[in-house]
């Protein structure tokens, strides 16, 4: 049996027409390849939606067809038959085996082209971006990813977008871990291609899926740390490199992406602000203590997140504003005395609110600023919003010769929304009065805690004197404002004196305790 098999192989390999048959088979496969190539080019160039989009062309040539490797394989198929004239049967067997393997690879490429032309192309696109062998050149990365993000055929396939973004983020992180200048040169381009086409992405994906927004926030932290680690140094140590410049460009693009996500979360139609605030809270909690101590300043990371002004601007216009303030906006971010003592993020929100509200309070006109009214009420949850608005307007207004005269005669643009108290039963009125009294007291305490230097005893006495010198008709708004401000200044002074008394008692108590111990 073995002899018969060997004889058959020997006869086959020495068949005089075998080289011609091998060449014919190669030509047949080559003809099919050419036919597919013509079909792919006609489809690509004739489809109006794909003109100028080279991603699928790159995938077809470099990944499905494997064009460059296939040239070598085709050369093997074409040239091998010429060596079949060698009289050594063992060498003929080796040549035929190499030819058969090469022909099989060409058949495999044909099958891949068939599946590509006929089937769902997403699998091929994804494997093109993630293939470990024959990785994309930097230029191909920029062009191919740019083409992919610019198309919107995947915006309704949220799970597909997730897979592609995971592949995209893996390439970004590979660059972040390297110091290769060529790689860093394309980093801003890759990010810009995504950022400029983010409107084509599925909104559920960018707001809800953990693969997207948390990753963007992580990149923001990496770029911030890379920048400020150098920026915080003395000037003579700041030698900017090409990587530093690309870091700055990439950081700017990431800021744009975060701002887009913020706007979409608050004013979009998807109703997924809960996920946005949850991802943001987790990120801030993770890096709340991250800071860089420089030669002149200490730079706190979470201060540099590009979210604060955008949230203050857009949250009042959100369809979910009630749920956001009541449930999604983390309680520890809000401005209370305890939060200001315990959470740096609360202090940041206070500072950003004061910056944001200053121009609104200073602006001329009588028009009610509804957004400012809502933010001041919700961001400071423990105070009486009407009294608190008066205090804010007083502190934030420009100084003049007579500060009290200015505040009394000026129109206030906010402070018209109070809190809604609910209850039932016989004690509802008592509860209402108690809660109102607590909020009035808290407004005074918070004002002294934040603006203690402004509300000194000397200033309060001076302002009381100014109020006593003002005279307006009894039934005028100005006269009523004078009365309100006399009560506010009196409450502030009484609270300062009470605090001093409490501090003195505590001091005396400590002295007595130390004396008894001795």
What does this structure look like?
This protein has 518 residues and is mainly α. It contains 23 helices and 2 strands. A two-stranded antiparallel sheet has the order 1-2. β1 and β2 form a beta hairpin. α22 packs antiparallel against α23. The longest helix has 41 residues. It is elongated, with a radius of gyration of 37 Å. The termini are far apart.
Descriptors:
two-stranded antiparallel ribbon; 23 helices; 518 residues; 2 strands; mainly alpha
Topology (SSEs and partners):
Layout: H1 2-13, H2 18-46, H3 55-64, H4 67-79, H5 89-118, H6 122-130, H7 138-150, H8 158-176, H9 181-196, H10 203-208, H11 213-231, H12 242-267, H13 273-287, E1 291-293, E2 298-300, H14 308-314, H15 321-328, H16 337-342, H17 344-362, H18 370-379, H19 385-396, H20 403-409, H21 428-450, H22 457-469, H23 477-517
Helix pairs in contact: 2-4, 2-5, 3-6, 4-5, 6-8, 7-9, 9-12, 11-12, 11-13, 19-21, 21-23, 22-23
